[in-house]
Amino acid sequence: MEQPVATGAHNFASIERVVFGQGAAGVIAAEAARLDARRVFIVASRTLRTQTGVIRAIEAELGERHAATFDGIPQHTTRTGVARATAAALAAEADLVVAVGGGSVVDASKMVTLCMRHRMTDEHLEALDHFEVKLGEDGKPVRPKFDGPAVRMIAVPSTLNGGEFNGGCLVTDERRRLKQTFFHPLMMPRTIVLDPALTLHTPESLWLGSATRALDHAIEALLSTTPTPIADAVVLDGIARMARALPAWRAAPDSLAARADCQIASWLCSYGLSSRGPQGGVMMGPSHAIGHVLGGSCGVPHYYCTPVMMPAILRWSEPATASRQRSLAQALGQPGRAAADVFAELVKTLGLPATLRDVGVGEDQFEMIARTSMRELFIHGNARRIAGPEDVLQILRLAA
């Protein structure tokens, strides 16, 4: 019998430039001049601002173009943190936002550009629910229509998770302990700057954990209900590069070349994530859905969710994704083995937590996690469809 014709759509992201292997300060100043930005607002990691010279160097290079700097974004990107940053950006009359730091800072900056457009600065951003991407009754994303940001951003990541290659972000409503997803094509950074020297200040556990987040984006693209040929090819190369780059980095953690290789691997791993969009793209899956609940409701650091959950998700989804998992195992450098076992061994080698128990999540929380995950945007993104909370419980038990 002839195989059915593959169908789908690939959405090309609105990133204009990725500048890699170069110093952030000079690149940001050049980009600000290219974009004719005269009021540059920096959203910075507090650690980078107070304990290193990175932010001062960027401010100095910008000179009169620097308007203000904000460093009050907490982990998990809370609404109150975004509200304060937005108020500061509006007060500074910002015409360009520059995010320098980890995933929380990058997500916050995306949200600041949206909140600036709609003049939202109240403490809990009460109107934000109207902008949330929600799950429809048919299991597909429902994206509300609204005006996108007028002020755009540049992202300078200090970690490897790859969320900057994406027009979406997560924001936590701390009152409900709920992570929510927001998306607009214009929330995508215009420029992404990959400076290996800046990452010398990133703690080892965060660096390694964020590397698994990049791998998560690649694996979820492979196992997606909506894969595309170009995304498959790029993310498999990214996985293979990361599998080689991490041991090289561990052997020489101060090597800028090794760090740059990790950054490029992250960029490629995130290619499927960057193609998400209204006109088509690669849907992420249950690792994202469950991870959002683990972070928002259980307080698990985002960069620990993948090492804890991915082996279980691979095992659970194997019946529907066997051939793709064989490609994954090959990319990880161990063809012929079960991809779940290979990934679990990688987690162990990196010294990261490997079970839900390791991150303080007990079985008494599983029912809540399963129920809440079913409302998450990406819960139906895996090629083995999750039909209900019982399927999520099966995955959680495999990860216990």
Automatic annotation (TrEMBL):
Residues 17-196 form the Alcohol dehydrogenase iron-type/glycerol dehydrogenase GldA domain. Keywords: Oxidoreductase. It comes from the Bacteria. Residues 214-398 form the Fe-containing alcohol dehydrogenase-like C-terminal domain. The keyword Chloroplast does not apply. The keyword Oxidoreductase applies. SUPFAM superfamilies: Dehydroquinate synthase-like. PANTHER family: ALCOHOL DEHYDROGENASE (PTHR11496), ALCOHOL DEHYDROGENASE 4 (PTHR11496:SF102). Belongs to the iron-containing alcohol dehydrogenase family. This is Iron-containing alcohol dehydrogenase.
